[in-house]
Specification:
single chain; 313 residues; alpha/beta; Nucleotidyltransferase, domain 5; 2 domains; binds zinc ion
């Protein structure tokens, strides 16, 4: 058995996974993550670390009692090396050796990998990237995670994960991103941005995906709302077309909260990419799919052995 852990901007998931990649048990927990905008930033960060460690150690030790655990992997939304969260801007965490903390209390080796790369590995092995030589995976939620499959492998750079599509600049001197730069793709095109924008403009105080989606459907003829959505689609299309121009993927697979809005967003997005002057090599069609493993892709991908082939291995 393996354990996969997925740490997101607002929740943690941990699962026990069998040799076929099937989750046989899973537990999820919402985390309080307001470490970004708080005057007591350090205290909040320490609280978040303690909350993560306590939950994970307890759960791992429970799994360990009844199963032989070969491997624990963690999917992290940010820059990592094998043991340390170097920088996760949407969690407000930096230089945090979480693997060591968990190994100390569980005696099982833990390895870390960027979350989008984990999800892409899982989709490549079991999901909707399977069978494609070249594909793009985009996890659009609190931020935007990305991964490229090239010649059947998920690419990673040597010292840091790389392929940080979310922080390519699509607008000079644009809006502030959590990473410290301005005008990043993520700052315009995350689902969080879409929801916050709509909630602020229409005075909504519920940011639940289902609630916002219903609001959009109910008010689909509202001119202001139409304008926000079209702006969102335009920005998303700019970012994605940049990636198509660089990598020419055969398929693009979407994960994250975006999936909840796919029936509203995916056709306009496709149209925007194909019919406006964004693509260098013109195409008649582009295959856009939703992640087959849904929110489980992170957990399953994290559990895949450290030796799972990646670039140049
Ligand atoms: Zn950024």
């Amino acid at each position: 058995m393996k354990i996969g852990i997925d740490i997101g901007g607002s929740h943690i998931g941990i699962g026990l996974i069998d040799e076929k990649g099937i989750i046989v048990d899973k537990e999820e927990k919402y985390i309080v993550n307001d470490s970004q905008n708080n005057s007591q930033k350090e205290i909040k960060k320490d609280n978040l670390k303690k909350e993560l460690e306590d939950f994970l150690i307890k759960k791992i030790n429970q799994y360990k009692e009844k199963n032989k655990i070969e491997n624990i992997g963690m999917a992290i939304p940010g820059t990592v090396n094998k043991t340390t969260i170097i920088r996760a801007v949407n969690l407000g965490l930096e230089n945090y050796n979480i693997a060591e903390k968990i190994e100390e209390k569980t005696n099982i080796k833990v390895h870390l990998r960027n979350d989008a790369k984990c999800s892409a590995l899982a989709e490549l092995k079991y999901g909707n990237l399977k069978g494609y030589e070249n594909g793009l995976f985009l996890c659009i939620g609190t931020g935007i995670g990305g991964a490229i499959v090239y010649n059947g492998k998920v690419l990673e750079s040597k010292n840091v994960p790389g392929y940080e599509f979310s922080h390519m600049i699509i607008q000079k001197n644009g809006i502030q991103c959590n990473c410290g730069k301005r005008g990043c793709f993520e700052a315009y095109s995350s689902i969080k941005r879409l929801k916050e924008h709509i909630a602020n403009e229409f005075g909504l105080n519920n940011l639940d995906n289902q609630f916002i989606k219903e609001f959009i459907i109910k008010n689909q003829n509202d001119i202001r709302l139409k304008y926000f959505i079209s702006q969102y689609i335009e920005n998303l299309a700019i970012g994605i077309s940049n990636l198509i121009n660089i990598f020419e993927p055969e398929v693009i697979v979407f994960g994250g909260g975006f999936v909840d809005y796919s029936d509203i967003l995916i056709e306009p997005l496709k149209k925007q990419i194909l019919t406006t002057n964004l693509l260098f090599n013109k195409r008649n069609d582009i295959i856009l799919k939703l992640a087959k493993l849904g929110n489980d892709a992170g957990i399953i991908g994290a559990s895949l052995n450290d030796k799972t082939p990646i670039f140049n291995e």
